[in-house]
Amino acid sequence: MAKKEMLKPIKIDESSIADKVFEQLKSAILSGQLKPGERLIERQLCDELEISRTPVREAIQKLKSQGLAVQIPRRGAVVSAATSKEVIDVFNIREVLEGLAGRLAAENADKRQTNELSRIVDDMSICLDNKEEERLEDLHIKFHETIYNTAGNEKLYLILVNLQEYIKAYTHVGYAFHGRREEANAEHKKIVKAIEAHDADKAEQCAKKHIKNSRDAYIHRLEEENSQSSTTS
């Protein structure tokens, strides 16, 4: 069950308590703090979060509606294990939306925004050289969020930001594929170059290619792991 250090108490006077419970639980699931198969016991969650059962029940229901939890007979709600198909589905959605974000960013970017993107990519290169994996992951998220902001479409921004936790959860698998980090960094630079040139077609193409390659790296890494598992079994 969830440990107290994983979940923070929520004050009763905060608005949208059920949404806040959902966000905490979703983050804990996607980060691996709550493991697949782990029970989501309402009473224990209420004690840890210091709230009533109603928002906890609503949050668990929302987790189930999004496939992050399932109802098991005689066990109650438990954390789901993401299937490879679900992960690939997210990549496919991202390919289209990231392409649109790249196109809009190229159309709307000003000098300050392109300078910010260039600085982030430079910092990512330094992290690669110094093997600073945790900071590289943070910069990767920041890079994409900066493009979403630059695109200037609030609805698109909200949809993509909502996918960010999924992105963070899946990226480390693809990055474990040999050479993917370096390849991804080169792709980031191409995206920035297209945005700086205000070449919308090129920016969309490069952004979609980046996500496609990330998806392929994820698949290849899974194939490697399955092959190794078959060899040792």
Largest sheet, described in full? Answer: 2 strands, antiparallel
Global outline: globular
Q: Please state the CA-atom Rg, rounded to the nearest Å.
A: 20 Å
Ends: how far apart? Answer: 30 Å
Strand content: under 5%
Report low-confidence residues grouped into runs of 5 or more: none
Number of H/I helices = 9
Order of helices and strands: HHHEEHHHHHH
Cross-sheet strand order for the largest sheet:
1-2
Structural class: mainly alpha
Question: Describe it for me?
Answer:
This protein is mainly alpha-helical and 233 residues long. Helix content is 73%, strand content 3%. It contains nine helices and two strands. The protein has helices at residues 17-30, 42-49, 53-65, 84-108, 111-130, 133-151, 154-175, 180-196, 200-232; strands at residues 69-72, 76-79. Strands 1-2 form a two-stranded antiparallel ribbon. Strand 1 (69-72) and strand 2 (76-79) form a beta hairpin. It is globular and about 55 Å long. It starts with 16 loop residues before the first helix and ends with a helix.
Protein topology:
Blueprint: H1 17-30, H2 42-49, H3 53-65, E1 69-72, E2 76-79, H4 84-108, H5 111-130, H6 133-151, H7 154-175, H8 180-196, H9 200-232
Helix pairs in contact: 1-3, 2-3, 4-6, 4-7, 4-8, 4-9, 5-6, 5-8, 6-7, 7-9, 8-9
